[in-house]
Amino acid sequence: MPSSRIRNQHAMPSLAPGDAARPEEGEMPTYYRGPSAHVTHEVFLVRDPGAAFAISELRDVHVEVYRSRRRVYELRAVYHGRSACLFRTTNERLFGQVKRALVRALEHRDTV
Fold first, then answer.
1. 3 vs 55, 57, 67, 76, 83, CA distance in Å?
2. Domain annotation covers residue 19
């Protein structure tokens, strides 16, 4: 069961135009908005099963990859003291986009 810690990966490149909405004063920066998830500097929302995770409460965020018929990619973390699956998909590209957004939200949290 291979896994890797997000926090130990190489530095992510700086935001390219269009990667994150540039917020107006008082608005939340949005790092990812799609049909399956929404990531801001405050919250990680998953549309199915309809879960919300406060970025400030996420600990030990990591990636797990499983193989059944197809590879399954998961973002996992400790949330309120319990292990939680934040996001799961078989779509590698979608997973990469959501993971990158979560990394940026965590980096924002750590600089505030």
1. 21, 21, 12, 10, 15
2. no
Residue 41's CATH number:
2.30.29
Residue 16 lies in a domain: no
How far apart (Å, rounded) are the C-alpha atoms in residues 62 and 86?
Answer: 10
Q: What is the pTM of this model?
A: 0.75
53-81 b/e (C-beta count within 10 Å ≥ 16 → b): bebeebeebebeeeeeeeeebbbbbebee
**Residue type at 92 in one-letter notation:** E
pLDDT per residue as tens digits for the range 28-37: 689 999 999 9
Is the separation of the CB atoms in 78 and 6 below 8 Å?
no
